[in-house]
Amino acid sequence: MATRRRQAVVVPVATELGIFGLALALIWAPAPQPHATPAPAEAESADASAVDAAILGENEEAPKRATVEQVRAKLTFYDQYGRGYQSKAGPPEGPGSERLQVVQPAASLRIRQRNQAISHTLTTVFDVVSAASPDALDAVSQASRYNEAGTLDVTTAIDTSDRDTLSFRYGVHVEEHWRTGFGGIGYSGSFNEENTVVSTSVNVIVDYFDDLHPRGWNDEQTYRFSLNDNLSLVQVLSPTTIAMLSYGITFQQGTLENGWNSIYIADAPTYGCFDSPDQRAEYDCVNRRRENLPRKRIRHAVAAQLGQHLPRSRTTLKARYRHYRDDFKLRAHTLDTWVYQWLGRRVYLRAGYRFHRQQGNDFWRRSVLQSTPTDSFFTADSDLARFDAHQPSIKGVVYLRPPQAASGGASSFDLGFSRYIRTNDLHANVFSLGYAQTF
Fold it and tell me: Radius of gyration (Cα) for the chain, nearest Å?
């Protein structure tokens, strides 16, 4: 878990978005039409029109306008605490506070065009972050302990045939000193009587952000470029068993430092330097310097998942393993397990556990010396250190209208909680509340 999330959230905006999404649903939902028994002449005319439509290839059943298929809303609260050597919110030698609270409303809307082969899914995420520790400017001057950010993520899917689907993903992310634009194209095809699904995608992400100095000023504007490729295979093994394999590779180039991490200079003075009224006295000395990472990075991730349903008890078991490695010599193993259990027709529970083991990279350290060369690599980021992480979770879903109901789409509420515990002194509690409506 990073010391600062780069997704985004403002409570009033999210509330307005939820109302706006429901308003769109009411506007775009097809209006009910009165039914009446036609007179014989009218029936004969209708039959003739149907024959004409069949000859001309017109579909009288097609909707006359775009329709809303699904609306989702979710509110998540993150409460993070702990200490890390990259944080300035503490003594110059560290470790400093990683205290962080995030309120994250999010909403999504899926719209089907009049052309039934085309759909759009719009997702908006906002963050209100309460923390000075991740921000060099805030940690030094205490100017602001709050940061707001927002993301708009759009996916357009086009069914080119009964088997093939093309998708286009695009969007933007904006926060205090960070701007991101992203886009991608994907393909999904079903084969073997829809028992095999192959998917692939290519995504491009460009970050443009302030290059912050540990003492609290902005050096310049800088950038980061990322190119991501993914390939996955989903295979039905039996009527109750499904398996998945996936591989992803990401190439990054540019400024890979995030701009708010720093590292302690062990042989630098802490007191007795020139005092500035704009910052705390212990930071007037040049006793911390910015982390220094390579300008390029290649990341690999391989994952496998198996799902098994037990019809008699209405239980579903899932297990997933993921292996990660990059040319920072970072290696990680992640194991996820979930149990889904229906309790009647309208309620199910999901219990999960995630274990993550990371060996850390070769240039992680707590401090450097004044004589450390500027071209050497070093970081004190706790996310790049060696650690184990445990994350148990539980979620309950209640259907107001269950799936496959006699009339109307499914609607549900869900409530979730997870506890994140990391062996290098980072902890987080995550609470979530969600709502979904299918039309």
Answer: 26
- The conformation of residue 92, written as its DSSP 8-state character, comes to T
Answer yes or no: are the C-beta atoms of 265 and 368 closer than 8 Å: yes
The most distant pair of C-alpha atoms in the chain lies apart, rounded to whole Å, by 101
Cβ–Cβ < 8 Å for 390, 366: no
Asked whether the whole model's pTM tops 0.85, one would answer: no
If one counts every other C-beta atom within 10 angstroms of the C-beta of residue 369, the result is: 10
How far, in Å, CA of 86 to CA of 258, rounded?
11
pLDDT digits (tens, 9 = 90+) for 47-69: 555 544 444 445 555 566 889 99
Is cis: bond before 38, omega within 30 of 0? no
DSSP code, position 378: B
Q: Amino acid identity of 307?
A: G
The domains of the chain are located at 11-29+43-438
Please tell me the CATH code under which domain 11-29+43-438 is placed.
Answer: 2.40.160
CA distance 417 to 430: 6
Asked if residue 140 lies in contact with residue 113, where contact means CB atoms within 8 angstroms, the answer is no
- State residue 10's pLDDT score: 32
Are 427 and 385 in contact by the 8 Å Cβ rule? The answer is: no
Closest CA to 247 of 300, 297, 203, 197: 300
Fill in the amino acid letter for 137.
L
- DSSP assignments along 298-344, one per residue: EEEEEEEEEEEEETTTTEEEEEEEEEEEETT--EEEEEEEEEEEE-S
Q: What is the pLDDT of residues 281-322, one digit of tens each?
A: 655 677 888 899 999 999 999 999 999 999 999 999 999 999
